[in-house]
Write a structure and sequence with these properties.
Elements lengths: L20 H14 L14 E6 L6 H5 L6 E6 L6 H14 L3 E7 L10 H10 L13 H14 L9 E6 L6 E4 L5
Parallel strand pairs: 1-2, 1-3, 3-4
Antiparallel strand pairs: 4-5
Length: 184
């Protein structure tokens, strides 16, 4: 599927024509900063919630969930998988910054559904070193959300595990579908 991405326009009168995407993003940041006013917020999320989601570029979490700046902590990675690093971030979010709820969001048409752990072996063959991390590929998105909920609920580091809910975001409709933690 081919999509076009919105890129900030090249700055007019720029000395750098044909700059990199990063150059264009840095220029967009300069323009953003010109009108920026310190919102005077604390690092603690207003809604006391942390959202763990896939890094997929098709998902605009703030718009999809009706969130504003300062409402939540957002933790994103490939697949929205609950890894040791995700637990690390959630632990800091809960213990140091007051969050109490966790929302887990996977999505339809995820790239991890087409990968296998062979990806690690292929990387090892290419670069001469086996990655220390697992790919965490899956075939059943609903079951992977259940596994993610279980990992959060059973972590000894997280004091608040009573409000952990998991969802699948449909990339074609924009709707969330809640996953029952028990098999249907």
């Amino acid at each position: 599927m081919s999509t076009s991405a919105h890129l900030p326009a090249e700055p007019s009168g720029s000395a750098r024509t044909g700059g990199t995407v990063t150059d264009r993003l840095i220029e967009a940041n300069r323009k953003y900063a010109e009108g920026f006013a310190d919102p005077g917020m604390d690092a603690r999320p207003v809604l006391n919630v942390a959202v763990v989601a896939c890094m997929d570029a098709r998902i605009d979490l703030h718009d999809a969930l009706g969130l504003r700046l300062g409402d939540c902590h957002t933790i994103r990675n490939a697949g929205g998988v609950v890894t040791d690093d995700t637990i690390r971030s959630l632990t800091i979010s809960q213990r140091a910054l007051g969050t109490r709820s966790v929302i887990l969001i996977h999505h339809t048409q995820c790239g991890l559904e087409s990968l296998t752990e062979d990806f690690r072996h292929e990387l090892e063959m290419e670069v001469g070193q086996r990655p220390t991390w697992a790919v965490e590929a899956f075939r059943d998105v609903d079951q992977d959300v259940r596994q993610a909920m279980q990992r959060v609920r059973t972590s000894p580091f997280l004091p608040h595990t009573d409000d952990v809910r998991g969802f699948v975001f449909d990339v074609t409709t924009g709707l969330l579908r809640e996953i029952d933690p028990q098999r249907p």
